């Protein structure tokens, strides 16, 4: 099995090692580690991950400065070619700021930092990232964010739901996200952004393994393609 993944590190990323370990554990292969200042990606990548953290200290809008890092031009180009791209937490924020996903991530409704396990519903189990979950399956995944309140206008929200692009939904209102949206896909289905951290729910030692199926779905679908 050949699976070439890359994990992007921005100044302030703090979950890049978690993401790299999750990919290594599930795929059996070490992912490449790419610094944000690089202008190019290696040829032949199967997958790109944008991890969580506080890129550039989140001193502007979360993810806004990272969206202008040199490597992002190459990532946008790769996504446009169909390469799967996955952004978690701050990585989700970067994807929206870069225009790869619609909407924006705002300050949590109660202005508080949330760090806990939350219950999600798998809203779409027909995607590259969710194929090994059951439809409407309830899963427990950790969150750790201050700016996880997903916002989009009603027209965009209706389009996302009508096209099956809401991948995950919170089972209750944790942070004020519109329609309790926790993760969304792009129109082509090869870009996923989500606030919860599936890379922190890979092994029983983490307290649960509900995040593992996401990586198994992705790797299984790509290797069998």
UniProtKB/TrEMBL annotation:
It is found in: Cytoplasm. One of its GO terms (molecular function) is phosphoribosylformylglycinamidine synthase activity. Pathway: Purine metabolism; IMP biosynthesis via de novo pathway; 5-amino-1-(5-phospho-D-ribosyl)imidazole from N(2)-formyl-N(1)-(5-phospho-D-ribosyl)glycinamide: step 1/2. Its EC number is 6.3.5.3, 3.5.1.2. Pfam families: GATase_5. The keyword DNA-binding does not apply. GO terms for cellular component: cytoplasm. GO terms for biological process: 'de novo' IMP biosynthetic process. The active site is at residues 89, 197, 199. PROSITE patterns: GATASE_TYPE_1 (PS51273). Gene3D superfamilies: 3.40.50.880. It catalyses: N(2)-formyl-N(1)-(5-phospho-beta-D-ribosyl)glycinamide + L-glutamine + ATP + H2O = 2-formamido-N(1)-(5-O-phospho-beta-D-ribosyl)acetamidine + L-glutamate + ADP + phosphate + H(+); L-glutamine + H2O = L-glutamate + NH4(+). CDD domains: GATase1_FGAR_AT. It comes from the Bacteria. Keywords: ATP-binding, Cytoplasm, Glutamine amidotransferase, Hydrolase, Ligase, Nucleotide-binding, Purine biosynthesis. Part of the phosphoribosylformylglycinamidine synthase complex involved in the purines biosynthetic pathway. Catalyzes the ATP-dependent conversion of formylglycinamide ribonucleotide (FGAR) and glutamine to yield formylglycinamidine ribonucleotide (FGAM) and glutamate. The FGAM synthase complex is composed of three subunits. PurQ produces an ammonia molecule by converting glutamine to glutamate. PurL transfers the ammonia molecule to FGAR to form FGAM in an ATP-dependent manner. Part of the FGAM synthase complex composed of 1 PurL, 1 PurQ and 2 PurS subunits. This is Phosphoribosylformylglycinamidine synthase subunit PurQ. It comes from Qipengyuania algicida. The gene is purQ.
């Amino acid at each position: 099995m050949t699976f070439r993944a890359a994990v992007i590190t921005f100044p302030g990323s703090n979950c890049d090692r978690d993401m790299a370990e999750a990919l290594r554990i599930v795929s059996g292969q070490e992912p490449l580690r790419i610094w944000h200042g690089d202008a190019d990606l290696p040829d032949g990548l199967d997958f790109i991950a944008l991890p969580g953290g506080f890129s550039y200290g989140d001193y502007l809008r979360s993810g806004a400065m990272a969206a202008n890092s040199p490597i992002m031009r190459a990532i946008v180009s790769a996504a446009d070619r169909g390469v799967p791209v996955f952004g978690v937490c701050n990585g989700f924020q970067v994807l929206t700021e870069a225009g790869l996903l619609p909407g924006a991530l705002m300050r949590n409704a109660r202005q508080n930092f949330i760090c806990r396990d939350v219950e999600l519903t798998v809203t779409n189990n027909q995607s590259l990232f969710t194929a090994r979950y059951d439809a409407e399956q309830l899963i427990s995944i950790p969150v750790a964010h201050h700016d996880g309140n997903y916002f989009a206008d009603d027209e965009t929200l209706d389009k996302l739901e009508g096209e099956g692009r809401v991948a995950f939904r919170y089972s209750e209102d944790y942070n004020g996200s519109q329609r309790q949206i926790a993760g969304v896909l792009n129109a082509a289905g090869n870009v996923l952004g989500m606030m919860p951290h599936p890379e922190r729910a890979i092994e029983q030692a983490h307290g649960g393994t509900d995040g593992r199926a996401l990586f198994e779905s992705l790797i299984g679908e790509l290797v069998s393609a």
